[in-house]
């Protein structure tokens, strides 16, 4: 088919270039550069971690072989995971043992040897192929990248772009017209990495995606339906993800945890479970990076990693209700349902009722060792990331998040409940630290604070604050009045604590950045007009912005708010 290059513009991102037709009939959203850069960073770390794990496995096996006879010990679950994960990626050493099955470690002179196969990546929803091309061209050590789309125009564009990107792209990237769900179902445990980047919700792809990843492989998954995940339509969220969202200030983190719980439930159907390495809320979407393993016995731990959330409708208090618990006796562990309820009918702080949301993933959402490696890698290859400033800021903030504290408090909301002036973040953080608890920021909200302090301690600190910063009298039945009517048990100490600023704050390293330009938001399915029906995909603000042409005003306002939020968080 002849093509006139004048009909196209060239878009360059990282090392990849794509041809965009003047009519732009294939999806492309440049704001997703943050998403693609972050994924490349995770992919690089995945390759190096996988190599380390492989070497550790080989040396463990060799030690075993050296010290014991031919009879192998029965491997435990953990061994099976590592073993299977590596078997998928093990390559025969040519001519060393022609009888060895492909993918099996090769045993030579009592030593197990094997070479890791470069990881195979499936970009299941590829559109123009930009992401697949960037993976192939920029990530050293990557294997084949399979790019799928069920839209003929997208596949044609992708194939054109593969050719346009030269020999490396041609040898590594292949594009197919396929329904991603069918393809993933018919390629079980075949891909080291599966990347899902859909329009809106990934929910319909999860069941097949968790089956297509090799043991120890990685699933990367975006969801842009934030209005659904953040509680705009609780029942829609429940039907798509099996969880009820709550409309707290922490809703974006809750969205991440709902998505993780949903992926885990799909994985469990196949005796598999997930281990999150990085979970990010950026721009207008959430994106999670999880490893997938198979183990019927490890799967029993799933209920320990999930919780319901009780959110008081009167004050900012929230409480987690774990689904399961364990009882250990000697060496045996029994799995039991969680003790319930963890809260009384009425909030013990303000007397109002609770909404119940979830279940959410309440175990850690990042592996801090991975986060450190990813951040170090990003910093060492600064010029290779077009969105360096943004992704390094997000990773820095994530690296400082308390790992074991789900969700967070909003200092603004606490003060709004009490109708008091707000202490600065530093003063509040100091009081929490001086009371013997931990506190950190969160990457999802410059004003959010994560703490392991129980709610009664938080309210005692605020009661002490109000004693020095009195409020006007309010009606007695208001949540704030009920809270302030009680005397604090704890005497808060607001003296500035050493750790009241995070390391990044102390060094003035950027943690939150405003959007670089207007229209920095989601895009519709290629070729569609924006109408009010698109609120769940784009969010109310974006849709109204397009419909009413109020974008510039809103953007200016948002940037102003972001700047002032940052200033408050730094203060
Ligand atoms: C948001 S775009 C992907 C953007 C791309 N990952 C990037 O980084 O530029 C989603 C793509 O998924 C494709 N798609 C939707 N449903 C699909 C399905 N069931 N199977 C394969 N592709 C599908 C659409 O045609 C669209 O091109
Ligand atoms: Zn309450």
Automatic annotation (TrEMBL):
Residues 57-105 are annotated as: Disordered. It holds the Pfam family TRM. GO terms for molecular function: metal ion binding; tRNA (guanine(26)-N2)-dimethyltransferase activity; tRNA binding. GO terms for biological process: tRNA N2-guanine methylation. GO terms for cellular component: nucleus. Keywords: Metal-binding, Methyltransferase, RNA-binding, S-adenosyl-L-methionine, Transferase, tRNA processing, tRNA-binding, Zinc. It catalyses: guanosine(26) in tRNA + 2 S-adenosyl-L-methionine = N(2)-dimethylguanosine(26) in tRNA + 2 S-adenosyl-L-homocysteine + 2 H(+). Its EC number is 2.1.1.216. Belongs to the class I-like SAM-binding methyltransferase superfamily. Trm1 family. This is tRNA (guanine(26)-N(2))-dimethyltransferase. It comes from Gossypium hirsutum. The lineage of its organism: Eukaryota, Viridiplantae, Streptophyta, Embryophyta, Tracheophyta. The gene is LOC107892004.
């Amino acid at each position: 088919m002849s093509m006139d290059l004048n009909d196209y513009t060239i878009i360059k991102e990282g090392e990849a270039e794509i041809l965009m037709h003047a009519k732009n009939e294939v999806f492309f959203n440049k704001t997703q550069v943050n998403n693609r850069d972050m994924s490349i960073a995770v992919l690089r770390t995945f390759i190096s971690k996988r190599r380390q794990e492989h070497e550790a496995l080989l040396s463990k096996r060799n030690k075993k072989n050296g010290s014991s006879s031919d009879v192998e010990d029965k491997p435990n679950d953990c061994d099976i995971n590592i073993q299977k994960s590596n078997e998928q990626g093990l390559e025969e050493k040519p001519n060393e043992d022609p009888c060895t099955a492909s993918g099996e470690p090769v045993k030579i002179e009592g030593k197990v040897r094997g070479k890791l196969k470069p990881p195979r990546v499936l970009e299941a929803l590829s559109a123009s192929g930009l992401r697949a091309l960037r993976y192939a061209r920029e990530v050293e050590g990557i294997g084949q990248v399979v790019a799928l789309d069920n839209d003929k125009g997208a596949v044609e564009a992708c194939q054109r772009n593969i050719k346009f990107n030269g020999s490396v792209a041609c040898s590594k990237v292949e594009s197919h017209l396929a329904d991603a769900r069918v393809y993933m179902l018919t390629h079980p445990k075949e891909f080291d990495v599966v990347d899902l980047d859909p329009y809106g919700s990934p929910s319909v792809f999860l069941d097949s995606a968790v089956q297509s990843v090799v043991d120890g492989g990685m699933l990367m998954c975006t969801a842009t339906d934030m209005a659904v995940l953040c509680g705009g339509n609780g029942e829609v969220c429940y039907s798509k993800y099996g969880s009820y969202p709550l409309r707290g200030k922490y809703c974006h983190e809750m969205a991440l945890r709902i998505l993780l719980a949903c992926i885990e439930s799909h994985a469990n159907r196949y005796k598999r479970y997930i281990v999150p390495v990085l979970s990010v809320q950026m721009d207008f979407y959430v994106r999670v990076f999880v490893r997938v393993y198979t183990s019927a016995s490890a799967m029993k731990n799933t209920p320990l990693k999930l919780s319901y959330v009780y959110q008081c409708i009167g004050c900012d208090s929230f409480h987690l209700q774990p689904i399961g618990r364990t009882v250990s006796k000697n060496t045996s562990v029994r799995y039991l349902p969680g003790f319930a309820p963890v809260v009384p009918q009425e909030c013990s702080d303000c007397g109002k009722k609770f909404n119940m949301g979830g279940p959410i993933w309440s175990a850690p959402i990042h592996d801090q060792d991975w986060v450190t490696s990813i951040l170090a890698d990003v910093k060492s290859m600064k010029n290779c990331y077009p969105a360096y400033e943004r992704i390094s800021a997000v990773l820095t903030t994530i690296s400082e998040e308390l790992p074991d504290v789900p969700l967070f408090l909003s200092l603004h909301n606490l003060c709004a409940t009490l109708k008091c002036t707000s202490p600065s973040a530093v003063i509040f953080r100091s009081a929490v630290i001086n009371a013997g608890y931990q506190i950190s920021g969160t990457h999802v909200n410059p004003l959010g604070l994560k703490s392991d302090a129980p709610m009664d301690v938080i309210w005692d600190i605020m009661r002490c604050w109000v004693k020095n910063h009195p409020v006007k009298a309010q009606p007695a039945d208001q949540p704030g009045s009920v809270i302030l009517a009680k005397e604090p048990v704890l005497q808060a100490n607001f003296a500035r604590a050493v750790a009241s600023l995070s390391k990044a704050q102390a060094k003035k390293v950027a943690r939150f950045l405003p959007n670089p330009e207007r229209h920095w938001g989601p895009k519709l399915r290629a070729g569609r007009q924006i109408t009010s029906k698109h609120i769940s995909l784009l969010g109310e603000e974006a849709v109204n912005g397009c419909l009413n042409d109020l974008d510039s005003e809103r953007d200016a306002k948002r940037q102003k708010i972001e700047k002032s939020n940052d200033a408050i968080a730094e203060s």
